[in-house]
Amino acid sequence: MPELPEVETTARGLRAQILGTRVTRVGGVDWPRIVVNATEELLQAVLQAQQVTEVGRRGKYLTISFDTGPVLVLHRKMSGNVLLTPSDMPIQKHTHLIVTLSDGRDVRLVDPRKFSRVYLFESTDLADVFFAERLGIDPLVDLTLADLRAIMGKRSGRLKSVLLDQTAFPGMGNLYCDEALWRARVHPLRTASSLTRAEMSRLFESIRGVLEEAVERRGTSFSDYLDQNGEKGSFQEHLNAYGQEDKPCPRCGKRIKKFWLGARGTHVCPSCQRMPRQASIAARI
Ligand SMILES: [Zn+2]
Q1: Which partner from 129, 152, 253, 276 sits 20 to 30 angstroms from 137, CA to CA?
Q2: What DSSP state is assigned to residue 91?
Q3: 216 part of the active site
């Protein structure tokens, strides 16, 4: 699933390539449910001749802003990719939106599972209202140690469940949670509010560190994720905990263990990340 680093990679890649181009056509909507608050006709009417002035990311939403105000927002959910493709390339299967640009290329939304969603807002202000209702503090850009302390201090839930809460930490995702917790040497089943000051500082540095490194490595590609040029990321080659069950912990050599937290496969080093005593009874390890 594309998480924050994958969406950030796509946003940066698109920004470098499509700023200043104009929309010549919007089409290809073959599955109307994908466009949540508009229709293909409305997208075409509003975006026709608009110039791309910014490409950004809010949580896991990709945003494309235009010169007279409208904002096109794409969420790729489980398996969507946003590809920059020459307009004369054949339309590949599972393409659900095509934004044709004046430079002879298309931004195409390709998603075999059709979970991706498209939104159109008339202005940045309206887009901001939409995001404010859904997203917490961005863990890559805006999160501070004080924010993290404030959020965690109020939560009685398990640490990993709080980190996965999109309204608190948009875009973290299961993989990046496991990696950040491994780096911070704290167990995912700890109560969020139980962290010491030192552990909180380590967790803060780890969240930032993991996300920044994943963006540098252009995201993680296990199966579906491709960047805007159709290329894979490489962070999957640098994982320490996630997907590493039975492999030695790179820090201490003990075998990484996997257990289930709800529906989420969760990976820990039993030596570096000490489990709280109550949790050992409750967890299915
Ligand atoms: Zn270890």
Answers
A1: 276
A2: P
A3: no
